[in-house]
Amino acid sequence: MRLRLALLFALLLPGAAEGQVRFQACKDRTDHPIAVLVDNSIAYAGVATFRNEHPVILWNARTNRRLPYTEQLFIYLHECAHHVLDHLYHGEVGAREELEADCWAIQLMVDGGLMRARQLAELERTRSAVRGDETHLGGEAHVRSLEQCLRRRTDPKVWAAALDTLVLGAHDGFASRRGRLIDSSGTAPVHEALLDVPGTYDCEVVGSTVRCWFFEAGGRRAATGRYRKLSKILKAWLPRGWTSAEQVSDHPTRLRRWIAQDGRTRTLLTLTLTETQLYLLIKRLPV
Questions:
Q1: FRET pair for 102, CA 20 to 30 Å: which of 6, 119, 148, 200?
Q2: Minimal CA–CA distance to 109: which of 66, 70, 82, 136?
Q3: pLDDT single digits (tens) 67-98
């Protein structure tokens, strides 16, 4: 239910001619591909919308042809984010949703190794020339916002606030934090989560558990480094009455897991590193 980086690395279609789309990797929360349709009449470079009741991304090939590749990739991922994060199902897309889409796109590009420091600097230059409107930031305010998106991924204060919210939500099994039903075919229904953790807006409520896939890198080293940094932040956050431990395994699909539990409420939190991915689970165990 996430955009897979394995596909992202093959996003660019070599030799894409005029009228063709360079990107075809976006999937919505139900893992269905989002089609990209060329429409040079739209006012923006890209627009997330519906056509014949199907989610699509409209792509202004004429406008994008004049933009650097990194800028085009950001625009594509921004529009993909609107579908992945269910923005179009919530009604009118406003300033908050546009900021979330910005953060989702820039974080994925950086964490996934889709651009280096030089390309990030180039993207900030091109983004600083973007004009804002009633819902989109523009100019230097837009660039500062993107930089804040990257900083908040490992900001201890932002993480502490998010974890406090998760712990409160676990008291009723996240019943009050469930959004749209995503999948009912498994052993437990999957809903969109109306909360998130720094680095993603793509959490899900699976039964009475919140699951957040929030980091996927191109290599194990980057993922391990983020795991160590975040486990340190989580240890510093631990409230009174919680205990924690770490499990280390040589199994290729589960390298490390940090576990914390509240002895009073039996709320359980786990941070797991699997190869190049990190995910967070939180639930309340039955008494």
A1: 6
A2: 70
A3: 998 999 999 999 999 998 888 887 778 999 99
What is the rounded CA–CA span in Å between residue 48 and residue 87? 10
242, 262 contact by CB (below 8 A):
yes
Residue with tokens 């890198």: 217
- Whether the full predicted model's pTM is greater than 0.90, yes or no, is no
Amino acid present at 94: G
- Cα dist from 106 to 40, 110, 142, 150, 247, whole Å: 25, 6, 12, 7, 31
Q: What is the DSSP string of 150-178?
A: HHGGG-HHHHHHHHHHHHHHHTTTTGGGE
Sheet of 54-59: strand order equals 35-38, 54-59, 46-51
- CA distances 217 to 107, 178, 191, 254, Å, are 11, 28, 25, 15
The span from the CA of 257 to the CA of 2, in Å, is 21
Considering the chain, what is the average pLDDT of its residues?
87
Query: Any bridge partners for residue 35, and if so which?
Result: 56
